[in-house]
């Protein structure tokens, strides 16, 4: 059985959990399309009224830096990773993802549920091992069939 995705749960509380998720592999290798997001910044345990991202696209280095150097409460985010800026197309299904130039699809929803899909199976295995090491809950590998059931927009 071929696995092309993974789900797991992160704590539903303020922190740097997007940084923890991104650090499961090498996000610096990509240009990131921030399609949907609601991530509220905090300073001194108070919400600032600002959001973690205002850009539509960020380099992997900038995305990781912002996710690791701020404290925030993450409601949801959808990220798509591309190898270069010229190939940033949008898609609405797993089959569209496979045909696209996107290499990684990542979504966090309802504050704690994470779903990843990768075109590179080696990255998936690395993410699985690292998610276990981080102590994330309910880690499950996803088949192509189950990935087709997810909402990709």
Kindly summarize this structure in a few lines.
The protein is an alpha+beta fold. It is built from 5 helices and 8 strands, in the order E-H-E-E-E-H-E-H-E-E-H-E-H.
- Helical fraction: 25-40%
Radius of gyration: 15 Å
Give the helix tally. Answer: 5
How much of the sequence lies in strands comes to 35-45%
Order of helices and strands: EHEEEHEHEEHEH
Q: What's the story with the biggest beta sheet?
A: 8 strands, antiparallel
Question: How many distinct beta strands?
Answer: 8
Q: How many structural domains?
A: 1
Which overall shape is indicated by the principal axes computed on the Cα atoms? globular
Task: Give the overall pLDDT as a whole number.
Answer: 91
Weakly predicted, low-confidence segments: none
Based on secondary structure, the structural category is: alpha+beta
Distance between the termini: 26 Å
